[in-house]
Amino acid sequence: MPGATVHDAVTVAAISFVNGVYWHIQPHQHVSAAFWFTGTFLVAGYACAGDLDIKSREYRAWGPLRVIWWPYRVLVPHRSWISHGMVTGGLIRTAYLACAITAIVVVAVWGVDLLGQHFGPAAITAGLWRHAVTAIYNHTASALAAFTGFIAAGALHSVTDLLGSAVKPRARTQSRRRSAQ
Ligand SMILES: [Zn+2]
């Protein structure tokens, strides 16, 4: 399996090409959309692609916040379709992240509520979700670009793993043959 350095190099090397492809196929050709695509592609490639299912550099990149990925790391089998599926990997991580952020907000508001400040965790969380949905609706092009960049980074990670696995056994067999000669 390629290491984090290889994944980072592939992500950075691919950005111009992938961004160019997205620019041509996207329904709205906005510069802000290209910005969002590039941003989420790089961030997801660095810290939110398939290897969050093990104690990887990606996992450690979250610092103390990596605790939110602990259930994912423990429950998801490494390199399964859940984490490394070309599209499903990114989709599941998006849903997981949305649930994790919601849980953090609920716990934080609930904690403040216990201290005597009555905000109402359900109302606050529903309000935040309403704001998020409105923002996505009002900035469809940017939201779509961010989402596509996120999914594309996960897919590139999985393709790199597949190619790495295909190349490694061949390289190992060749070196074994060479040492046998
Ligand atoms: Zn991987």
Task: Give the secondary structure arrangement, pairings included.
Blueprint: H1 4-25, H2 31-47, H3 57-60, H4 70-75, H5 81-84, H6 88-114, H7 121-138, H8 140-180
Helix pairs in contact: 1-2, 1-8, 2-8, 6-7, 6-8, 7-8
The structure holds zinc ion (ZN).
> How many domains would you count in the coordinates?
1
What small molecules does the structure contain? Answer: zinc ion
Structural class, please?
Answer: mainly alpha
Q: What pattern of helices and strands is seen along the backbone? A: HHHHHHHH
* Total E-strand runs: 0
Mean pLDDT, to the nearest integer, reads 87
Percentage of residues in strands:
under 5%
Written overview of the protein:
This protein is mostly helical and 181 residues long. The protein has one domain. Helix content is 77%, strand content 0%. It contains eight helices and no strands.
Summarize the entry for a quick read.
With 181 residues, the protein is mostly helical. Helices cover 77% and strands 0% of the residues. The chain contains eight helices and no strands.
Task: Please name the defining characteristics of this protein.
single chain, 181 residues, mainly alpha, 0% strand
